[in-house]
Design brief:
The chain has 555 residues and is an alpha+beta fold. Helices cover 20% and strands 24% of the residues. Helix 3 runs antiparallel to helix 4 and helix 6 runs parallel beside helix 7.
Length: 555
């Protein structure tokens, strides 16, 4: 494969004058991390640096640069999408993405024809634009449940792995979709999903592929991903199933006047069905500030998984099928052709009128930021697995750096996804370095962060009820008003170590829409809230979330 080049903003040979405002800002962040130029160079097939010794034992984590990406993008190789591969790749570059995953829907046409055709396009794109990291993936229909992103590191078997997996384990292709409680096939189907992720883990262990990762997509959209299923997937292969979409795509679904009076951000417009897990309340089928209920609810499902003391990451992405207010329509099929016998939709055709759509282009609105020590495919996958992840909507921030360190320590401390081992009574400092937005976002708005919330939860170990979705000891413990603050600034927040282990995670917003959180004001006094149906302008309600840092009390 063609050797990977640095992105333009990270390449010293590219003069600052040719960079846009975003590139200049990101170059400054890279310099502050001490990773500019040769220190950040990495060929796409080389092995990234492993986290510094001591991670998980109180040592220092490395300095990081953050690469922006999207793990959920569709093209003409998905039966329900529209755009060519090159249209999506160009849009991603225009909106500043460093990495992206094409995860096409599973389908017999895709497995038989489309996956191989797309792979040829991906190889060409990697060679033509080595400054962009392009992964091939699959949107897996999980037996008895929803969808997942599955993607592998580039290599000779990346497409074969996905195709073999699709044919052997996809719920839709096998007709293993039944997941209702008590149905005859539910136990078999749930077991097949566990077998599937174990099979992926085995391909990584044997070296058939260098790496492979799985994220659960839009987990509460239909309410069919039960808590016990999510725990089962994670526990079967925790190095493979590493997280879920904290916020779905389709963020433009409720722009006023676009899709109708009942539309909701994320297209979360469903009601419980026979396939849904009965323990979810009706409110779980909505988005909150554009985020899935499982993530947005302080003390909810995500926190209940973190309270077991195990990392489970959140991401955000475009899930781009059809962009809002776009004027391209699907092309017509030639006689005798269809998706099943070609694996590829006809190229779209430009029109003079806006077409239906709920999505934004990759990177236009939703961004997942992954901390890396070097540049390359496996570096991104390592950063995701380590949990060095934060996410924002609407380009709310230019940068975010979070470190937890001992009050009088001299090192860098640990960062997102990390663990700090401490003794009872030690004093810690949470350092939050924010770089405010320095340029208007794609909507022409200069975002302004209004507040930063620190959320703390107790770690109590594995749950006895694997269907629990509550973490009763998790709550917002501090809110800092940062309205009007510009440039780069650091908040230093004292953290007292008690008798038991805990985790800390962050959240913040533009302050435009908030209210009492789902579990009450004592848990979350000013959290994200659902919007009025049909009136969910996403640009007017933007948030950031971070992955947790764990504090392990050892004595």
């Amino acid at each position: 494969m063609t050797e990977q080049q640095l992105p333009a903003w990270a390449d010293p040979s590219v003069p600052p004058a040719v960079l846009d405002a975003q590139g200049v800002s990101r170059r400054g962040l890279l310099r502050r991390a001490g990773l500019f130029g040769a220190a950040f160079a990495l060929g796409g097939a080389a092995t990234p640096a492993v986290a510094a010794a001591g991670r998980g034992h109180g040592g220092d984590d490395p300095r990081l640069a953050y690469l922006v990406g999207d793990h959920h993008v569709h093209s003409v190789y998905s039966h329900d999408a529209k755009y060519t591969f090159s249209q999506q790749a160009r849009a991603a570059a225009r909106y500043g993405l460093d990495w992206m995953v094409f995860n096409e829907h599973s389908n017999f046409g895709h497995a038989s024809y489309g996956a191989a055709l797309e792979h040829e396009e991906i190889l060409g794109a990697r060679a033509a634009n080595p400054r962009q990291l392009i992964f091939q993936g699959l949107e897996w229909y999980i037996p008895a449940a929803e969808h997942c992103t599955v993607f592998a590191a580039p290599g000779p078997h990346e497409t074969d792995l996905l195709t073999r997996f699709e044919l052997a384990y996809d719920g839709k292709l096998l007709n293993y979709t039944e997941g209702a409680a008590g149905a005859a096939d539910t136990a078999r189907n749930e077991a097949h999903a566990v077998k599937a992720v174990r099979w992926l883990a085995e391909q990584r262990r044997t070296g058939y592929v260098d790496d492979v990762l799985v994220f659960a997509n839009h987990p509460l959209r239909l309410g069919i991903d039960s808590p016990h299923e999510m725990r089962n997937w994670r526990d079967a292969a925790p190095e493979i199933v590493i997280g879920m979409e904290g916020a779905p795509g389709a963020q433009g679904a409720a722009i006023p006047g676009l899709r109708g009076a009942t539309s909701i951000r994320g297209e979360y417009e469903n009601k419980p069905s026979a396939q849904s897990w009965a323990g979810y309340p009706a409110d779980a089928y909505l988005t909150y500030g554009g985020f899935d209920w499982a993530t947005a609810t302080v003390g909810g499902l995500w926190d209940s998984m973190l309270a077991e003391g195990r990392l489970f990451s959140v991401t955000t992405n475009s899930d781009n099928h059809r962009t809002v207010l776009d004027t391209w329509k699907n092309g017509d099929w030639p006689a005798g052709q269809n998706f099943d016998n070609t694996g590829r939709l006809p190229d779209p055709v430009h029109t003079d009128t806006p077409q239906p759509g709920s999505d934004f282009w990759p990177g236009q609105f939703s961004r997942t930021h992954v901390g890396v020590t070097r540049y390359g495919y496996r570096a991104v996958m390592t950063g995701l697995r380590e949990g060095r992840v934060w996410l924002d909507h609407g380009h709310l921030l230019d940068g975010l750096e979070i470190r937890l360190r001992r009050e009088h320590g001299t090192g860098r401390g640990v960062t997102l996804g990390g663990r700090l081992r401490v003794r009872k009574g030690e004093k810690l400092t949470l350092e939050i370095t924010v770089t405010s937005a320095s340029r208007p976002n794609p909507q022409g708005i200069l975002p302004q962060l209004a507040h930063v919330d620190v959320i703390r939860g107790a770690v109590r170990g594995a749950v006895s009820d694997r269907d629990t979705w509550r973490a009763p000891d998790t709550r917002v413990v501090r809110t800092t008003d940062v309205s009007g603050r510009k440039g780069t600034y650091t908040l230093r927040i004292p953290v007292a170590v008690g008798d038991e282990s805990c985790y800390l995670r962050l959240r913040g917003s533009d302050g435009n829409r908030n209210g009492t959180g789902y579990l009450g004001a004592s848990v979350d006094p000013h959290g994200p809230i659902p919007h009025e149906p049909g009136n969910g302008d996403p640009w007017a309600d933007t948030w950031f979330y971070s992955n947790p840092i764990f504090v392990d009390v050892v004595g």
